[in-house]
Amino acid sequence: MEQLSRVDPNEDPYLALRTMLGVALCFALAEPLGMTQPMLPIAIGMSLLSGQRGALTARTFAGPLMLPVVAIVFSWLAAVTVNEPLIFLFMNVLLAAGGIALMLFRGSRAGMLLTVFPAMMSLSALYNEYALATIRDSMVSGGLLVGAAAVLTNLLFPPRTKRVHIESPKPHVSRNPSVELAIRVGVYLATLIATYATNNISLLIAPIMMVFVCAEPDHGGRMEQVVDRGGGTIVGAMVGVAALALYNLVPQFIVLLLLLSAITYGLIDRMTTGAARPQYYQYVCSVALVIVLSSIYGANSALEVVVQRVSITVGIMLAGIVLLSLLEEMFVPRDDTPEDAAVRL
Questions:
Q1: Residue 250 lies in domain
Q2: In a structure prediction context, what are the per-residue pLDDT tens digits for the chain, which is 345 residues long?
Q3: 340: in domain
Q4: 86, burial (CB in 10 Å: exposed 0-12, middle 13-18, buried 19+)
Q5: Would 62 be classed as within a structural domain?
Q6: 54: which strand partners?
Q7: In 3-state terms, what secondary structure has residue 121?
Q8: Does the keyword Transport belong to this entry (predicted)?
């Protein structure tokens, strides 16, 4: 997939402001709209708003508006198949294979829809019907709210450029695509099934992290994922803990709203001005928001959330890289690299 590019401040000086306002609006309206678990909609909304590049186009609103459709479809599929284990498993295997293939060989972000969202809904369905309904309803309300926030913030603070951003993904080129796909899907499914076995919905982060490891075409890309997502998890956890400490001093709604806004603005602004890759700051922001909100609205303590996030994220990504490298060494010829295959073509 295309790596998140750095924003030129001359083209779009308001990216951080738009994202901050979007997060603040989603959080402020979460309770009136009946969202009992606002973490995922806010985190996904932040990622979508901060991922805008170039001039305003219809694609800017396509992502948020797709969330309700995707949530309804995959929650329904999970609900009707959860009591039929073979059909349930076959459906998730098929979706995982299709999603990883799209991400790996086409560089398409649509592949995430076929992996991340089915994993979320299937694990929720295994947990209980209430968890599935809660996540579905939160994603539906959150998607519509993020779409409205995208429209409003872009009208108030539009990008200054008229350049339309065209994605330039770098798909993986392989002489043995079926073997490589089978290896990656197998590693991902092993993580997903192990998560199913725990029946712990808070471990959902494990298969989601493994998706990004398995969809990267080479070792360098995977290591970048570890640095950005693993390192971002650790830094985001520290930011989240600091915010929780301040909130506990004055546990008021307005204080929490200001903290979330400050975290979002500061980190998304670093996507433009920081030295690290933009996706690193985006992930730090996502982790910080999720840790703060899940500690306040969830059943787990702040320490448990932080330890779980850090240990699972870093551990699962490193384990995935080692396992993928070992399997590829065993079953994929050493000279089967993207560069060699491209030359032969």
A1: 15-159+175-332
A2: 556 778 888 888 999 999 999 999 999 998 888 787 788 788 888 988 888 877 777 777 777 878 889 999 999 999 999 999 999 999 999 999 999 999 888 878 788 888 989 998 999 999 888 889 988 988 888 888 888 888 899 889 988 877 766 666 777 777 788 888 999 999 999 888 888 888 877 778 788 878 877 887 665 566 676 777 778 888 888 898 899 889 989 999 999 999 999 999 999 999 888 888 888 999 899 888 988 888 887 656 666 666 766 677 667 777 877 888 788 888 877 554 444 444 444
A3: no
A4: exposed
A5: yes
A6: 164
A7: helix
A8: no
**pTM, entire model:** 0.82
Name the phi and psi angles at 21, rounded to 5. -65, -35
Write out the two tokens for 310.
């850090």
User: What size, in residues, is the chain?
Assistant: 345
- Is the Cβ–Cβ distance between 113 and 99 less than 8 Å? yes
The DSSP line for 152-213 is HHHHHS--S--PBP---------S-HHHHHHHHHHHHHHHHHHHHHHT-GGGGHHHHHHHHH
Residues whose CB falls within 8 Å of the CB of residue 136, separated by 6 or more in sequence, listed in order: 71, 72, 75, 121, 124
Residue 167 lies in a domain: no
Cβ 103 vs Cβ 172: under 8 Å: no
Contact in structure between 138 and 38 (CB atoms under 8 Å): yes
**Residue pair 113/70 in contact by the 8 Å Cβ criterion:** yes
Q: How many domains are there within the chain?
A: 1
